[in-house]
Amino acid sequence: MILRGALRDRAVLAAAIVLGALLLLALLAPILAPYRFDALDLAQRRGAPSARHLFGTDELGRDLLTRIVYGARISLSIGLVAAVLSVAIGVTVGATAGYARGVADALLMRFTDAMLSIPTLPLLMIAAAVLDPGVPLLIALVGAVGWMETARVVRTEVQSLSVREFVTAARAAGARGPRILVRHVLPGVLPTVMVALTIAIGRGILLESALSFFGVGVQPPTASWGNMLYQAQTTMSSEPWLGIFPGAFIFVTVLCFNVVGNALRGGENRT
Amino acid sequence: MLSFLLRRVAQMVPLLVLVSLVVFALIHAAPGGPLALYLDNPNVRPQDIERLRKAMGLDRPLAEQYLAWAWAFVRGEWGYSYADGRPVMDRLLERVPATLQLAGISALVAVALSLVAGVVSAVRRGVDRAVTVGAIAGISLPVFWLGLVLQLVFANQLGWLPSAGRTSFAGGGLADRVAHLVLPVIVLAAAHAAGWSRYLRSSMREALTQPFIDAARARGVREGQLVSRHALRYALLPFVTVVLLDASLMVSGAVVTESVFAWPGVGSLFTESLAKRDYTVLMAFLMCGAITVALLSLASDVVVRSLDPRLRDAA
Lengths: 271, 315
Fold this sequence. Notes:
The complex is a heterodimer of chains A (about 270) and B (about 325).
Chain A: H1 2-7, H2 10-27, H3 29-32, H4 64-100, H5 102-116, H6 120-131, H7 135-144, H8 148-161, H9 165-172, H10 177-213, H11 225-232, H12 241-264
Chain B: H1 2-29, H2 36-39, H3 46-55, H4 62-74, H5 88-123, H6 125-140, H7 143-157, H8 174-208, H9 211-218, H10 223-245, H11 247-260, H12 266-275, H13 279-307, H14 309-314
């Protein structure tokens, strides 16, 4: 369907392949990583990239490539689960507001606008610093602040879909409100939801990495791409590889999700 | 216009109440609450903490505490920083000029960049793909990482630009100040220019399909004029709205950029205060952030109304 059309674009195909490879890398981390997660190479501390350690080693002599591969598990799963969560909230709020209209609509959209105007990152940083969250709570926090755009788009689409003939027909056939919404209106919103989901994954990964970069996200010894950068920022000039590689992985991953999302939206086809 | 303004200001109140409730709840959910800082300090005895708790009213019901805090905040009594005992408002105000300078210049650069990129990619199909790729890349960049890499290349390796701060230790003249601005402005502007140019591109595309463009073309208006005079005017309206509404992103961006480049603004005050659990400063920062965002969204409404005669007459 849409995806197949989008994949005909070579850039989009490349992005999809890279994403597939990254997912595989994360899933098969124990098999694919060159070293054990916590293996120390004390003779090679702060080692520059070499044949033995492709991406170099950190201050404890841990292999950076291994840590990036394991970090992919944390970063990708936070991105994925937080995106599903935020899209689920967005669809629920947007669909309810768009279908119910009236007072419920006004209240929900006011709340959405309010959420949009809160500076997200500082608020999350305070929340993370105060609550000292583990990965599940971190996912909940990231998911809780990313649903507003989805809610707005879904609301507009539900509004326009629910005055179409097939909805009237369903109502005439005796279907009730919730059933109409779930069975007849929501399937029409699916393409939009797919786009929102792809974009939200990238945004979730960026947000997690920013929180971890400030030391309030994923806590060591668990590795995420963001907290590897937190540790690397003070040694950027002497051991630049510790900062360059994790950041490059964040960038490439988010870029691929955005390229796919943009193609799903039809950004390339319309030109 | 006046009644419109009043209505909009009144709408800001529930929003700010919501923000303050969230922040207040968060800070009081912390282990030790606002006194967390003292709990770790071996020089502060448990009796002292109890006395402080009484003195600061922390033994009262939460609702009462919230109302007392809110009323004090409205009167401009923002309390004292736990870190150095100075009034919170002084600490924030002394940092504002640096942030305004950085954010203002970055916003101007980003607007200029996105105007060029947005218009060119809407009009010239050949360039569009390259600009699109650049914009998507810009949106995907982790801001702090871009900052670290630019520091590494241009400050540490090439030595062309200073890596941090607002001036050199000795102070320095205009050239020194400008040199310190270059990297932070690039980082903060890049993130915004990417998103804004996409937006302008799609509204320019829409503008160019409007009947009045055909009409102008039929009257013999040249293509260049058509784009710069007729279409851009139409497309600029939603663009201005988006730029002003993105202020909350600008606040987040300032926090990141300022702390990477040790820029002595409000954003780095925030990260310093976060590390010290300086809750009075954190609360005031978030409230001011939310107020700024609300004011800019008000400004965008006012701008749109004054630019769009249809809305002006309707009121």
